[in-house]
Each structure stands twice: as structure tokens, then as C-alpha cells.
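pinned: reference chain
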Amino acid sequence: MMWIVLICASFCELGFTVFMKLSDGFKNLKYTILTIITVSMSIFLLSVAIKTLPLGIAYAVWTGLGTVFNVLFGIFVFKESREWKKLMFMGLILVGVIGLRLSA
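pinned: its C-alpha cells
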């Protein structure tokens, strides 16, 4: 169950970074408010997950999945580059996340 909470926290991390980008340096009030809400949700969900999951593993999975989600969102929504190096290293992050999950 806590792994699902942790994945939800990672999706909230995606939300807050996307909203932060759209806030244009916190000049757009709507996206600034959404940034604050989603960063708060992400940290809250992470705090719930680390009650039972090992701290180091939970934090690494949270940031790792958040990174992968952001890279994919950037590629598909913001039309950022799809360089093979970016995709390869993103794959390595996923391998690390899966490895940490299996070791917990």
C-alpha cells in the first residue's frame, strides 16, 4: 500500500514541477497556487510513505520516479529533445528504482 502512496507522491512531484514551469517564475498566480498545492501534497504523501518504508529507498524512488515522469512529460508535452543519451540514462534511473524496490 505504501508503495502506491509513494508513486502518487511522485506523480504530485510531476505536477508541481510542471506547474512551476507554467507559473513563469511565480508570476502567474493560478499556476503558483497549483505549485504550492501539489508540492505540499507530494511532501505529505512522501511523509506518509516513510512511516513504513525505509527512508533512503523511499526518497530515491520518489525522486527517481519524479525525474522519469518529468522527462517523459517534457518529451511528449513540451516537445523537448529525445536524445538517446537522455533516454538511456532515464532507463538507468528506472533500473535503479526497480532494484531499490526489490531490495526493500
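why pinned: The chain has one domain: 2-103. Residues 55-76 form the longest helix (22 residues).
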